[in-house]
Structures are given as structure tokens and as C-alpha cells.
Amino acid sequence: MNLLSVSNLNVNFKMKKQELAALIDVSFTLNRGERIAIVGESGAGKSILGFSIVNLISKPGYIKSGSIKLENKELTKMNLRQLQEIRGKRIAMIFQDPMMTLNPVLTIGDQLVETIRSHTKITYKDARNIAIEKLHNVQIASPETRFDQYPHELSGGMRQRVIIASVLLLNPDIIIADEPTTALDVTIQAEILQLLLAICRDNGVALVLISHDLGVVSKVAERTLVMYAGHIVEEGPTLEIINDPQHPYTQGLLNALPQMTLPGQRLNQIQGSMPSLTERPTGCAFHPRCPYATEKCQQEQPSFIHSGVSSVACFLVEDMVNDFANQDEEDR
Amino acid sequence: MATPLIQISGLEKSFSTNESWLGQWCFRQGKLARHKDSVHALNGVNLTINQGETLCVVGETGCGKSTLARAIMGLTQPTAGEIHYLDQRIDQLNDRQRMFFRRRMQMVFQNPYASLNPRMTVYQTLSEPIAFHQPQLSRIEIDEKIETLLASVGISASSSDSYPHEFSGGQRQRISLARALSVEPDFIVADEPLSALDVSVQAQVLNLMIDKQAERNLSYLFITHDLAVVEHFATRVAVMYLGRVCELAPTKELFSSPKHPYTRALLSAIPRLDSTTAQPIRLIGEVPTPIEKPIGCVFQARCPHANQRCYEELPKMLLQSDSSSVACHAIEEGRI
Amino acid sequence: MKYSKKDLIHPIAGSRWNHIWSGFVGDKLAVLALIIFIFYCLVALLAPLVAPFDVNDPAFMDLINSEIAPSWISHDSRFLLGTDAQGRDLLSVILYGTRLSLTIGICAVLIQATLGICIGLMAGYLGGRVDNFLMRCADIQLSFSNMMVAIVFLAIFQSLFGIAMYQQLAMVILILVIGLTEWPLFARTIRASVLAEKQKEYVDAARVMGISSKRIMFRHILPNTLSPVLVIFTVQIANAIVAEAALSFLGLGMPATEPSLGSLISEGFSYMFAGSWWICVIPSATLIILILAMNLLGDWLRDHLNPRTYKD
């Protein structure tokens, strides 16, 4: 059974005059211990997806329809107390800015101990020992001194390690990491990614990595979902997506990377930019920027179809798959 | 060889951290004494930029790359060292004397959401520098100029009465570039112009910069932390660490055979699509804040190859066989 | 390379004023406050036209008519809101009083704002010693209660030049006193936003272009710091009117012959418990509604001009 399954999730923003759709029919599953990535540019809805998994979207956003199941518990129908039990204990979140989660006026240690003691009844001393052990696990040198320091005394990379330690305190099944390394330097980023990877492997934790950087994703995730304007447009094994992208958007995104062109040449750019929530185009959301767009793309929303090991929402791929199937039949 | 366009020699800059006069007094060994703390952002940078080339400066947060850009543009006064434009020294000029060089050298900034004045329309943003530097132009000529300028960066001239918030990040960065180009410079400093943009939009802006370079024979000083962009765009690369250049090499040489231990670690840390197995080289600790002026090599504290000499003696930039220069004792001694 | 026509990019969002206006229309309280404020301004401007009596007419003050209750109590159709102790029509006096109070308030705040903006801009942009000096001046000014300064100043003036001279110049002096004591509020706000704006890259961009400090200060930075000023402006007008009313109440404001709302309240207060409550209550209500409207407007502006609340 899947650890987490999201099906036909629709998240809307209720504005004064109109309803804006932020996520449209998003479905995916996550197995125990699996690492998946959600990739997209800003405005694609990837962070909103991360937040809605734990039902943490703030107003005016709300879950319009669809279901989010953790094993067999439906998260969308839970009340606040049940949700709080799930958040932290079963599903934990890591944000881009560690200061979002760390309280600047409390020491690192106090925050960690408080987290443990709010969920389990143990003495301060035991909680302290657990906290120091976890700090040790995330390769923080001399955790005893760090324990008594305030967040501002630590560097950015160190803070992110503390966050990872705090997430580990309650042994969650899923970690959702929203751009965990975007604010860090490359050398630190590499270390944090390795740490995250090692921790997920060692403890059998499933990871949902939200990122805009395909390079980062390729290092960590086994499976990748590509998002564009609130839709998942392509889903498949990470290697497959990077080496053989099917959706024109994924292709464009990969081709736009500087390393895909010879030095000094013009890059292959995608024209235009991501539509904002208010001006979603009809049909396939990518058609105004798509080099292969047909009339059909402007009118109809393509459905998700399997092509090889990936799934893609694109008429172009659909036609190709159908042609293939027809040919198969003719051959027979 | 022709004179380089920009020549920087021995550039140093330190910022005082306790600014207020009262804060500088403190008791030391029973005596009241005045004491200034300062952060050394640049510790003797030597660089040259040739006509028509793109010099990329790479480094992590706090390595002084932005300070370098600001010092070249005259936004901060360097503590020591010289900056030359062709054969004129420009680091000590006052605002009036600098005016000529303002037209020759321009800058594109990192944050497209802050680098355009939110209360000025695109037209006002562009017409101000044009009217200021070319007062002989009539209004119609200015209008024409703005129209061609906007068209050349791919912005519709009909939107020249719009305010910056009406544009997306990529569009704003184009307008920023148009503003820099409006005075027809031959040298542009770009301080992380792509870091706030999405991948697909990054490509658009980078293409525009490549086009403009080909069109006007521009020289760029391109500051970035994105090594993929560097590999694609740079003619030469300077790697900076704690206010010093530790390696300077033509792009191809730098990426095929990085020499300085820091460069190697940096290159190994880029998450690449093509090599999923390579392990990054782990460095000890994190970038320290340069409160004390370093005596030895700036990288000593994190370097796996450091020996006693590295702590005591500043390494010199030495030219290697493949025309790259490296400042490292270990390489000089043949230890790595 | 030139781009062909169809590749040119058009802006994506609507204008900012549209946004503010649509937010304004949606907020009924703000609209109500604005309508009330405009009504007050119109009444103040048109006081000579709308007032049923001419206050400058010698026949206006007639003790025979003193202390007549409002018309819905006394059924005296001549005086809608009744008369005061000197037999003046209360409605006319209030109309003229509003005019005076608003004039004093707006003029005083204009002085505050001009001084405060210039000082704040200089302190924020030039920084260093200039900043230190100007801000210490502001601190000193703030450490005196403005009411105290006004009282001391007005009292000294009255005893030096006599009551007659004071009554002639009362309005100008009140404007100056209230105007000169409250500039630090503007200066501090402006300085804080200048310090924030100065960090932004568009200021660096202007400096790189070689544009002079004066032009950068007034053309580039000032327009971006004006939204908080607008907010304080409305709130300060309310404060200035209250300050003037308080001074008048203490007998240091406008003379009884040229009553502002404050002096009307002060005068009416002595008749409060003698049964003629309307002389005090009606001007008070007028003042309270005006102040409330101004504060509501200020609050609304604070919420909506804040750049964090509209998407940049």
C-alpha cells in the first residue's frame, strides 16, 4: 500500500471577485522510503502542493476537492487536533529559510527539547540527551556547545542542519523539504543534500523534495514530478526525465540550461514566462509557449497518459503513443 | 598586447563594524582606548579585463565579489589599491571627474525587483540618464532612442508608460539592461543578474547579454555563483575566496583542470545532471568572517593540503603551463 | 539583433492606482470616512454661504436670544441647533469654527511635514554626523511635551505683547506653535524609510549613472517614502485639531470672538450643568466625528499604501 496518495487534488484561492485555481487535478503517490521531487518554476504551485499535503494552506487558499490519504487516513477531513498529531510526528516540513521555523529568542536546545516533550512525556534530561544525539547525527561538531546557542549565532548551513535534527526528533515517515538549499552556497548545499539523502536512506524516511533546480533533484530523488501552472505535466523516474524528457515544457526547461549548449552560443530559451494565476490560458496551460502547439492544445486539457516508464499530459505524446499502438495492431 | 580595458591592482577594502564614535571606545587592560573593528572584504585583488571579453568572478557568499563590483563602479571607496580604465586612474575621482567614466562603465544589478525605481515609468527610467548625459538631444530624439532601445531588448515601446511592477522579473532585468545600455557604455558590471530569475527566463536574459556583447563589443565583469552559467558564458574565470583571487584561468582550462584546492571543491559541489555518481569534496567548516587581515593563505583553515608555510606566508599568483594562474603553496611545491 | 514585432513583450499587470481604487471602493468604512471628510472640507470652505447667519454682522450677537435650546426641543425655527450664551446661532458658529479648526490643523501639519521631510531626508541620505546631529535635535524636541512648549510659549507671548495683540495674531501663532513642535515625528518616519530605500539597488543604479545627490534624494527616494507620510499626515491633522482645541479649552487658543471648535467646547462647558448642554455637546460631537473620520482614513491608507500588502 502507498504511504501517501494524493488524488485529484484541487486547491483554489478565494479572492474577492473570483476563484483562482492554484492546483488542478494533482495526483501522485509516495511509497515508504521513496524519495520524490517536485520540480517547477516560481508560480508553478509546487510550494502550495507541499503545504496542502499537511493541510497547511493559509487563507484565502483552501482545498476544493480531492483526497490526500496517509496510509488509510484521509487528511482533508481531519480536524485541527488530529492534523497536529500528523504534522511533525508523521509528516515533517523543512523550509528554505531556517529562521521560519527557529524561534530567534530561544536557544537551539530549548526548541529541540520542547518539541520532544510536547509529543512524549519524558524528563528534561532525557530529552536533552536525545536532542544532542540527533544534533550529532546531523554532523554538527560539538553539539553540547551548540545546544546552548541561539539561532543567530549559527551560520546558514548550520541552521539548516539543526532544522533537519529537529525534524528527526519525532521519527517522521515523510519529510517535505521546500527548497531546503536555495539560500545556501554550493559547497554547503552539497553537504546538506548528502546529509538529507543519508538520513532518508538510513531511517527509511520518505522524502518530498520541492526544488527549481534540476541538478539538485537529480542528486536526491528517485522519481520526479514536473509542475507547470498548477498541473503536473510529467512524472517519471528522475533519470528518465533528465535523459529523455517527453513533455515540451520539460524539454524546454532542460534545454535552457547553459550546459546543454556549446559555450558562447545562444541558449535555447523558452519564449514568454509562466502565466499568473489570474490569466491561465485555456486548454493546455503551456500552449502559448509551446513550439508544437496545435489548435487542439488551445481548447482541450490533455489527460495523463503512460508513455514508457513516465506519464505525460500532452497531446503530442498522446498522438505518438496512439500511432505506436495502431502500428502494433497493424503489424499483428 | 593592447592595454587592458580595466586594470585592478592591489585593491583592498575594509568596512568598520562599529560605526558610531562612542562605540569605538572600550576598556582594555584597565585603560580607555579607541579601537576599531573592521571586516576585510577585499585583501589585495589584482585583475585585468580585456576589451570584448567576459570575466566571470565566482565565489561564495562573503568572498567580496559584490564589493569588488561596487569598488570598480565607484559606489564604495577602496581602502587601498588602484583601478585603471585604459590608462587613467579612476578610483580617486570625485563625482564630477568621474562623469566621463559613468558613460563608459555601467552596471546591472542582482534584484530586478529593487533595481528599478517603483515610482518611475520605464520611459522616465530610461530618459533620465539619456537626457542627463546627452543634454544636446531634443525630446523627439530621446523618444526615438528609447523606442529603439526598448525594441532591442525585446520590450514593446507601447509599454514605456508602465511602471516596473507591471512587468515580470525577466522583463525588469531587460529594462535594467536597457538602462545600462542607454548611455552606450563599453564595459558592464553585472552583479548576479540571473540569480533571482527562473531557469527558462535566465536563458532569455543571458541570450540578450550575449547578443549585446556581439553587437556592441561590450566587455563584461560577470559576478555569479552559478558555475553552469560561467562555463557557458565566460572568457576567463576568477575564483575568489575571502577577498582574494585564488585562481584565474581561461574557462576551458578551469573546468577541465581546476588547480586550487578551493576551486576543485567548488566544482565538485555543483549538482550536475550528467554525473550522478561523483562525490563532492568535503571541506572542513564554513567560510569564516574576515575580521583579522589574513597573514597566510586565505584558504588555510579549510584546506586539506595546508602546511606550516600556508599559515605564515601569502601565496603569490603564479602562471601555470596552461596559461592559468594559481595562488597556492601546495601547487608551487608540487604537493598536489 | 532586433526583435520582430510579435516577439515584443507587453506588461503583465494593471496599474497601481486601479488596485488602490478598487480596494478603496470595496471598503465601506473608508468610503464613509472619505465622504465625511469631504463634507467637512466643503462646509468649511463654503461656511459664509451655508451659514444661516453672518457671524460678522453686529446684529448676530443678541443676548435676548441667549441659551435657546435646539429647534427640536424649543420649537424655535430660527435656530436649528439653538444658541449659545451670547445669543449666537450655534449652527453658524460651528460652521465657522470647523473652518478655523481645519485651517489651523492643515496649515500646522503642512509646516510639520515640510520641516520633517527635509530634515528626515537629509539625515537618512547623508548619514553619519549630519544624521546624528539632526536626530539628537529631534530627540530633544520630542523630550518636551508639545503641549507644555505651546502653553509656555503662548503664555509668554500673551504677557509680553498683551491680550489684544495676541487676539489679532492668535491663528498664525497657533499654527506656528503646533507646526514647529511636532516635526520630529515626520523626520523620524522619513528617515527610517529613507534608510530602507537607500539600500535598494535603484539608488545605486542612479548613482552609477552619475545623478546628483540632490536629485536622487528628491526625485528617486522621496516619492518612495511618501506613503507613510500620507498616513501620518491625516492622523496629524486630527492631532493638530485636537491640540488646538485643547489649547483653546485651556484659554490659550482662539479668542471667544473668533471661536474654533475647541473654544466653543470650552465656553459651552461652563453651561453644561446649568442645563444648556447643547452649547458644549454639539461642537464636541462635530469635533469627534471629524477626528474619527480622519483617523479611519489614516488607518485605511496605512493598510493599503503599505507596499507589502500589494503585490510588487
TrEMBL record, chain A:
Transmembrane segments: none annotated. One of its GO terms (molecular function) is ATP hydrolysis activity. PANTHER family: DIPEPTIDE TRANSPORT ATP-BINDING PROTEIN DPPD (PTHR43297:SF2), OLIGOPEPTIDE TRANSPORT ATP-BINDING PROTEIN APPD (PTHR43297). Pfam families: ABC_tran, oligo_HPY. It is found in: Cell inner membrane. It comes from Marinomonas ushuaiensis DSM 15871. Residues 6-254 form the ABC transporter domain. Keywords: ATP-binding, Cell membrane, Membrane, Nucleotide-binding, Transport. One of its GO terms (cellular component) is plasma membrane. InterPro entries: AAA+_ATPase, ABC_Ni/Peptide_Import, ABC_transporter-like_ATP-bd, ABC_transporter-like_CS, Oligopep_ABC_C, P-loop_NTPase. Its main location: membrane. It is a peripheral membrane protein. Belongs to the ABC transporter superfamily. Its EC number is 7.4.2.9. One of its GO terms (biological process) is peptide transport. It catalyses: a dipeptide(out) + ATP + H2O = a dipeptide(in) + ADP + phosphate + H(+). This is ABC-type dipeptide transporter.
From TrEMBL, chain B:
SMART domains: AAA. InterPro entries: AAA+_ATPase, ABC_transp_ATP-bind, ABC_transporter-like_ATP-bd, ABC_transporter-like_CS, Oligopep_ABC_C, P-loop_NTPase. One of its GO terms (molecular function) is ATP hydrolysis activity. Keywords: ATP-binding, Nucleotide-binding, Transport. One of its GO terms (biological process) is peptide transport. Residues 27-267 form the ABC transporter domain. The keyword Transit peptide does not apply. It comes from the Bacteria. NCBIfam families: oligo_HPY. PANTHER family: D,D-DIPEPTIDE TRANSPORT ATP-BINDING PROTEIN DDPF-RELATED, TRANSPORT ATP-BINDING PROTEIN. Belongs to the ABC transporter superfamily. This is Peptide ABC transporter ATP-binding protein. It comes from Marinomonas ushuaiensis DSM 15871. The lineage of its organism: Bacteria, Pseudomonadati, Pseudomonadota, Gammaproteobacteria, Oceanospirillales. The gene is dppF.
Automatic annotation (TrEMBL), chain C:
SUPFAM superfamilies: MetI-like (SSF161098). The chain crosses the membrane at residues 29-51, 100-126, 147-166, 172-190, 229-256, 276-298. InterPro entries: BP-dependent_transpt_permease, MetI-like, MetI-like_sf, OppC_N. It comes from the Bacteria. GO terms for biological process: transmembrane transport. One of its GO terms (cellular component) is plasma membrane. Residues 98-298 form the ABC transmembrane type-1 domain. It is found in: Cell membrane. Keywords: Cell membrane, Membrane, Transmembrane, Transmembrane helix, Transport. It is a multi-pass membrane protein. Belongs to the binding-protein-dependent transport system permease family. This is ABC transporter permease. It comes from Marinomonas ushuaiensis DSM 15871.
